[in-house]
Automatic annotation (TrEMBL):
The keyword Glycosyltransferase does not apply. It is a multi-pass membrane protein. This is V-type proton ATPase subunit a. It is found in: Membrane. Belongs to the V-ATPase 116 kDa subunit family. The chain crosses the membrane at residues 400-426, 447-465, 534-553, 565-585, 640-659, 770-791. Residues 693-703 have a biased composition (Gly residues). It holds the Pfam family V_ATPase_I. Keywords: Coiled coil, Hydrogen ion transport, Ion transport, Membrane, Transmembrane, Transmembrane helix, Transport. InterPro entries: V-ATPase_116kDa_su (IPR002490), V-type_ATPase_116kDa_su_euka (IPR026028). The keyword Iron-sulfur does not apply. Residues 95-122 form a coiled coil.
Length: 835
């Protein structure tokens, strides 16, 4: 957790690597995943960099792997999962062997695929011919009666003009796609002026496309005509509609003989196709065992060459120079990776790493684990923290699920979240292997620890509210005693239980279950939860303002503590903190057990009215026998607090601009001398301090430098911040009332579901009642999960997120940094899988 308090300290390093050790060294750095490289060749075209040939080589290998993977998936072969044994980046010799193996496999697959397409095309043609011969049996009568001849028969081609001249009909037979039949008929009618007689029959079973394998629905047709000219026209139309023409004898015996020959050829071709499929499956099964490893190796190799393209070659062409951001804690790891990379290739000249000074803002790196990663993602969604700025994720681990639970306080619904979160946490290794779960599942699984904590806190607040699916538990026994007799209870629809006589103590934990039966339950809970919302809200905002001191202290902006933090915390505490104090004071002072009338519950003043009167300097006449104020010196104390609060406004408005104006005048002369001497006056062994990390009043943490900014803009900027803080203090306090509103809405929805759904089934009796209860219970469970857990849970989650982003983090968090994106093989492979 210490690493989460603020982002890690970063160092800008310069590394010098020998060309022969560059590949292995970068490979080792990719395995460690703790270095973010900078591009030293920004002005160089991507196609003119040193390792562009190797990158193209990797692209070609990826293309071959994608082609083989497509063929494997087409055959339904499952690729093995190698999450537990991820191969390292290949060495140059392995690259050559891998390239040769992929080239051989691709060539073999292309040859097999082409042969298969050719054989399937022949198979399709023979199948269509068989279908034509079989379906045209009903199109022909006895040849001696009709005296027909086929226009497609080569043997009768010499006598065909003479036969047609004598009045005999010719015909063509073939197959056409079913969706083109009607247009085909219209075209034949138009070109022949109605002198073509067309008969057709739809095929019952679809045929398979040889190239794609998709089913094709076709129709067998026979077109009868007379005349050579009309025959040529019909053939042209068939060609235009992509119809396949096949020879069809008009003689029944010849057709039968031809069908037998075609079936024999089909059986032979089917056998050859089966053997080809078996050989293809064996080849793909052998390749599929190594394909995932090859894919990872090629991706790593491509990432290495992409990274090497960010390096710069020195003038002697004997050394590669790179710049990178490295967490200072990982500097020994990086140096060891460079040493291992040089040793792997036997380089005699070691690679070395230099830390250089810079005035650039480093990237922000918060080291997380599987528990804290979800909370850190919530913060980064708002904005990445400025470098070394206080990280709110550390406190969000507790405040986020707690504020969620205040709105989602139900023991039963909390247990549902606990079970769901615990299932994902306990089975996370198995569930992490799910690849196609969808975006929603990835969000749920990524936030599994958040869901678990939200459920645990919801169970706790449900116990405080004593609310389980809108019902209460009487664990310790109610502390309210009924003094009425049985007849009084039975004859009166409502009875009053005065707390001075009916209450005999305090319920040990949570809300007394007797409030479940009270008519004024909602009135009591409204007051209780509304006050809790204000109390938690003010405490949350005070904590956020106090966190700004941590940033001011770290960045040595000590003047801002007095000029910004002190007036802000005074304004917040003296007004809204005082209102919280009055709530506690009212709870402690006024009770039903006292005999002193001004301290009885009937004389308790309204905290809201008292706060409004305090701000407007007004008075409200008290009731007879009551006091207007809770204690004697309260009016003077309230006036003092309001006056000090009003003084804080010009304090925030003018303090910082005047301080900047004063310090600018005093530093003007010394700054000019410093610009002339530069770093020439440094003593031996001293290192020039970068401007960005000087630790000055306005540096670091996203702080804005005011050295060159006109004073008018500084005044305007500070005025905007002052107005924003004053108004937001009021609006943000009211915004925390959403805790009360959503808690009340959740409880009322739960009660409505119980009374209007489940209670109907519980009132039924007999066998029909049991069946009805079973159905109604299922409906109640469905509505509970869909409305109260999913929809209400999502609503409470979003409102909690808003309370942290706006009300809490706006008090101290700037979020103007940029994320640390290291060169990591794990991150690259995970990104590929998500896409």
């Amino acid at each position: 957790m210490g690493d989460m308090f603020r982002s890690e300290e970063m160092a800008l390093c310069q590394m010098f690597i020998q060309p022969e050790a560059a590949y292995t060294s970068v490979s080792e750095l990719g395995e460690t995943g703790c270095v973010q490289f900078r591009d030293l060749n920004i002005n160089v075209n991507a196609f003119q960099r040193k390792f562009v040939t190797e990158v193209r080589r990797c692209d070609e290998l990826e293309r071959k792997i994608r082609y083989i993977e497509t063929e494997i998936k087409k055959d339904g072969i499952v690729l093995p999962d190698i999450q537990d044994d991820i191969p390292r980046a290949p060495n140059p010799r392995e690259i050559i062997d891998l390239e040769a193996h992929l080239e051989k496999t691709e060539s073999e697959m292309i040859e097999l695929a082409q042969n298969e397409v050719n054989m399937k095309s022949n198979y399709l043609e023979l199948t269509e011919l068989r279908k034509v011969l079989e379906n045209t049996q009903g199109f022909f009568s006895d040849q001696e009666v009709l005296n027909l001849d086929s226009s497609n028969r080569g043997a009768g081609g010499a006598d065909e003009p003479t036969a047609q001249h004598r009045g005999r009909l010719g015909f063509v037979a073939g197959v056409i796609n079913r969706e083109r039949v009607f247009a085909f008929e219209r075209m034949l009618w138009r070109i022949s002026r109605g002198n073509v007689f067309l008969k057709r029959s739809d095929l019952d079973e679809p045929l398979n496309d040889p190239a794609t394998g998709h089913p094709i629905y076709k129709t067998v047709f026979v077109a009868f005509f007379q005349g050579e000219q009309l025959k040529n026209r019909i053939k042209k139309v068939c060609t235009g509609f992509h119809a396949s023409l096949y020879p069809c004898p008009s003689s029944h015996n010849e057709r039968e003989e031809m069908v037998k020959n075609v079936r024999t050829r089909l059986e032979d071709l089917k056998l050859v196709l089966s053997q080809t499929e078996d050989h293809r499956s064996r080849v793909l099964a052998t390749v599929s065992k190594n394909l995932p490893s090859w894919s990872i190796m090629v991706k790593k190799m491509k990432a290495i060459y992409h990274t090497l393209n960010l390096f710069n070659m020195d003038v002697t062409k004997k050394c590669l120079i790179g710049e990178c951001w490295v967490p200072t804690k990982d500097l020994p790891v990086v140096q060891k990776a460079l040493s291992d990379g040089s040793a792997a290739v036997g380089s005699t000249i070691p690679s070395f790493l230099n830390v250089i000074d810079t005035n650039e803002q480093p990237p922000t790196f918060n080291r997380t684990n599987k528990f804290t990663r979800g909370f850190q993602n919530l913060i980064d969604s708002y904005g990445v923290a400025s470098y070394r700025e206080c990280n709110p994720a550390l406190y969000t681990c507790i405040t986020f699920p707690f504020l969620f639970a205040v709105m989602f306080g139900d023991l039963g619904h909390g247990l549902i979240l606990v079970l769901f979160g615990a299932w994902m946490v306990l089975c996370e290794r198995k569930l992490a292997r799910i690849r196609n779960g969808g975006e929603i599942w990835n969000i749920f699984f990524g936030g599994r620890y958040i869901i678990l904590l939200m459920g645990l806190f919801a169970v706790y607040t449900g116990m405080v509210y004593n609310d389980v699916f809108s019902k209460s538990m009487n664990i310790f026994g109610s502390r309210w005693v009924n003094h009425y007799n049985t007849s009084t209870v039975l004859t009166n629809p409502s009875l009053q239980m005065p707390p001075n006589s009916s209450a005999v103590g305090v319920y040990p934990f949570g809300l007394d279950p007797v409030w479940q039966l009270a008519d004024n339950k909602i009135i009591f809970l409204n007051s209780f939860k509304m006050k809790l919302s204000i109390i938690f809200g003010v405490l949350h905002m005070v904590f956020g303002v106090c966190m700004s001191v941590v940033n001011f202290t770290h960045f040595k902006r000590y003047a801002s503590i007095f000029l910004e933090f002190v007036p802000q915390i005074l304004f917040l505490l003296l007004l809204f903190g005082y209102m919280v104090f009055m709530m506690f004071f009212k709870w402690v002072t006024y009770n039903a057990q006292t005999n002193f009338q001004p301290q009885t519950p009937g004389c308790a003043p309204s905290v809201l009215i008292m706060f409004i009167n305090m701000m407007l300097f007004k008075n409200t006449p008290p009731s007879k026998g009551c006091n207007e104020f809770m204690f004697e010196s309260q009016p003077d104390l309230q006036k003092t607090f309001v006056i000090i609060g009003l003084i804080c406004i010009p304090w925030m408005l003018l303090g910082k601009p005047l301080y900047i104006k004063f310090t600018r005048k005093n530093n003007a002369h010394s700054k000019q001398n410093g610009q002339l001497t530069g770093n020439m006056e440094l003593a031996d062994g001293e290192t020039p301090l970068p401007t960005g990390f000087s630790g000055g009043e306005e540096s670091g943490g996203g702080g804005h430098s005011h050295e060159d900014e006109p004073m008018s803009e500084i005044y305007i900027h500070q005025a905007i911040h002052t107005i924003e803080y004053v108004l937001s203090t009021i609006s943000h306090t009211a915004s925390y009332l959403r805790l009360w509103a959503l808690s009340l809405a959740h409880a009322q929805l739960s009660e409505v579901l119980w009374n209007m759904v489940l209670s109907l089934g519980l009132k039924m009796s007999g066998v029909g009642g049991a069946i009805g209860l079973f159905i109604i219970f299922g409906a109640w469970c469905l509505f509970t999960l869909a409305i109260l857990v999913l929809m209400e849970g999502l609503s409470a989650f979003l409102h909690t997120l808003r309370l942290h982003w706006v009300e809490f983090m706006s008090k101290f968090y700037e979020g103007l940094g940029y994320a640390f994106q290291p060169f990591s093989f794990k991150a690259i492979l995970d990104g590929e899988e998500e896409e």
